[in-house]
Specification:
The protein is mainly α. The chain is 57% helix and 6% strand.
Amino acid sequence: MTRPAAHKALSEAVREAMDSVDPSRGQRTAFDLARALQGVIARFGLKSGFPECRDVVRDFAEENGLDPEDFEGEIFLVWDSIACPEGLDPVRAAAQLQDQGGIPEGFLKSVPAKARAQCWQTLCIARRLSANGDRRFYLSARKLGEALNISPMTACRMLNLLCSAGHLQKIGRPTTKQAQYFQLKNGT
């Protein structure tokens, strides 16, 4: 896609996101717009966050008779609580939105580099799905494999490794062919 064509497609996607939000839903409006904008950011693979969306938020508020300053504050307060941008499943969203920071030095030292990096990605996804450990989360090896471009069996092995290493804990009855609930262990 050429630059002007990409810009036009992005502008249209932002406009569609704004049009899909009902401004009469009170505080839910801020959540819906934040989720829609994050969906656009994820679909286009942008490295954007709330600061880059301020103009869009203000335009939406002005077009719909909302106080731009108050509405911008509401969007800011819900921005980081969006677990799944519009149009993405939660696991793929967590994979796309994960922090690309380095792997901590002591993390799974004895594991080969590539597997160690994939385990770190999995743990970052788990953090996002669990809201930094505040809730248990449901994760299938198939969805994790799709998000990381690995086989479901490899994803299952990584989840088991993270459990045995003390980073994750399986919750509920063990399952063989279904997704499992997990919880981050303290200090992870």
